[in-house]
Specification:
The structure is a single chain. This protein is α/β, with parallel strands linked by helices. It folds into two domains: 151 residues, 3-Layer(aba) Sandwich (Rossmann fold); 234 residues, Dihydrodipicolinate Reductase, domain 2 (2-Layer Sandwich), CATH 3.30.360. 30% of the residues lie in helices and 19% in strands. The chain is built from 13 helices and 18 strands. The strands form two sheets. Strands 1, 8, 9, 10, 11, 12, 13, 14, 15, 16, 17 and 18 form a twelve-stranded mixed beta sheet that branches. The chain has a six-stranded parallel beta sheet with strand order 4-3-2-5-6-7, with helices on both faces. Strand 13 and strand 14 form a beta hairpin. Helix 6 packs antiparallel against helix 12 and helix 9 packs across helix 12. The longest helix has 19 residues. The termini are far apart.
Length: 456
């Protein structure tokens, strides 16, 4: 009988040099300045010269969560916030300044203004997928280190642009794939990497399906004028202009392919990231073949993303992977099956063919994976040390590729009367990161920008 256990997982949870500090505070040799006690390192905080100064772009759902993790750390300080919704921006500034009991955090409307500030060392990016590439590359060019949300970007080509920008500008990047900083996920990957379950034959990646209305706008699907507090034209940005519908803005943008990628791309950066970690495929371009099928609403639906899908992938060494969203026959999380056993892990716990592996790895296991117990703290530590974070940009890129390819496959499938699309089989050259022998599919690796925006 298989052994099992359940363990509750925790929720997810730069350096400013003297010249930057002087610029930020307006300190000049010619005039005396009163410096706050906190800037001198009192109040149980690091001195300003030892703190990482941060800005946050996006204060919808994930922005407050990520910033909350940063506010817990004594060796960083959030000094700027940016959002295109005036109400969100007000809430962000009030939250941050309330935490520090000061008025140092300044608001801004345009992310480029924030990136141009020389006193900011790092940024948190929590914006819709369609904005990821533009804002991330702007941050990298302005020499900001970046904590960016997953998936890395809306398209594979945009992800490649982010990876290049981060590398060319020698930036530290941390992706919000925080499961790597939770012990059981790391141990599960170590079990697989040490060969304890034998040769890997099959990997199952279970994702949520349907739609999760986190902001209560599911029934607000009529076309209206944008509220005065939201700069909707700017918010649409490089995506195709379309009428304002409340149910497609703030969090629920992810259910509109013009802006996001549905729960498939929303979650691929979590569980496929862990699957690749166990397979030692962080630095490879992914599968060799992909075919997906999924259930789609009407093409003119307000929420038009796939609600349920199954993607079959072939990896090197005869490894098969199944990514399923919304299918009850496949458990959420990640399961690796090998010739000598199996391991499953999710946020709710873990199971294995030999539970002892989770308590202690057997003698002779030499693979010890990167250890982080706090995802945001790991980012700040790496900003200071200049060592790679636990989930760098190229890792996030490779983790999301299977989801992107699965979506491309499905979008090219013929739509049946019941909304089912049986996708086209795609061949992927992982080394060159190109779709082979299908020009129509290859065009979907990128997409045009609109409204005068362009990716440099």
């Amino acid at each position: 009988m298989a052994q099992w256990a359940v363990m509750k997982m925790p929720s997810p949870n730069l350096r400013m040099n003297r010249r930057h500090f002087l610029a930020a505070t307006g300190l000049a040799l010619a005039a005396p300045v009163i410096v706050p006690a906190g800037a001198l390192g009192r109040e149980d905080r690091a001195a300003a010269s030892e703190r990482v100064t941060m800005g946050v772009v996006g204060w919808g759902v994930q922005g407050p969560n990520d910033t909350g993790e940063a506010l817990k750390l004594k060796d960083c300080q959030v000094v700027a916030a940016c959002d295109l919704d005036a109400n969100h921006l007000r809430d962000a500034v009030n939250k941050i300044n309330g935490h520090y009991n000061n008025k140092d955090c300044r608001p801004c409307h345009d992310y480029r203004e924030l990136m141009a500030r020389r006193d900011i060392d790092a940024v948190i990016l929590a914006v819709p997928d369609s904005w990821h590439a533009l804002i991330a590359t702007e941050a990298a060019r302005n020499k900001k280190d970046i904590y960016g949300e997953k998936p890395l970007a809306r398209t594979i080509a945009e992800q490649q642009a982010i990876v290049r920008a981060v590398k060319e500008n020698d930036r530290i990047w941390q992706t919000g794939s925080w499961q790597r900083s939770v012990g059981p996920f790391r141990r599960a990957a170590e079990i697989v990497r040490n060969g304890l379950i034998g040769k890997i034959t099959r990997v199952e990646v279970g994702l949520p399906g349907g739609y999760i209305d986190a902001v209560g706008t599911r029934d607000k699907t009529g076309i209206t004028q944008p509220p005065p507090e939201l700069d909707y034209d700017f918010w649409i940005g490089p995506a195709r202009m379309e009428p304002y519908i409340e149910a497609r803005v703030h969090h629920n943008w992810r259910y509109n392919y013009n802006i996001g990628g549905g729960l498939l791309l929303d979650w691929i950066g979590h569980h496929c990231d862990i699957a690749h970690w166990g397979l030692d495929m962080d630095d490879t371009g992914g599968p060799a073949e992909v075919q997906g099928e999924g259930e789609f609403p009407a093409e003119d639906a307000v929420w038009n993303t796939c609600s349920k899908c199954r993607i079959n992938l072939k990896y090197p060494d005869n490894i098969s992977m199944i990514i399923a969203s919304g299918h009850d026959d496949l458990k959420g999380g990640v399961k690796w099956t090998g010739t000598d056993g199996w391991v499953w892990v999710d946020r709710g716990g873990f199971e294995a063919s030999n539970l002892d592996w989770f308590q202690k790895l057997p003698e002779g296991c030499t693979v010890k994976l990167y250890k982080s117990d706090n995802h945001m703290a790991n980012f700040i530590q790496c900003v200071r040390s200049r060592k790679p974070a636990i989930t760098p940009a190229d890792t996030a890129h490779h983790s999301a590729i299977p989801g992107h390819l699965g979506l491309i496959s499905m979008l090219l499938g013929e739509r049946k009367d019941n909304g089912l699309r049986v996708g086209r089989r795609l061949k992927w050259d992982a080394g060159k990161e190109v779709i082979v022998g299908d020009n129509e599919a290859a065009k979907l690796l990128s997409r045009p920008y609109h409204n005068h925006w362009r990716l440099l």
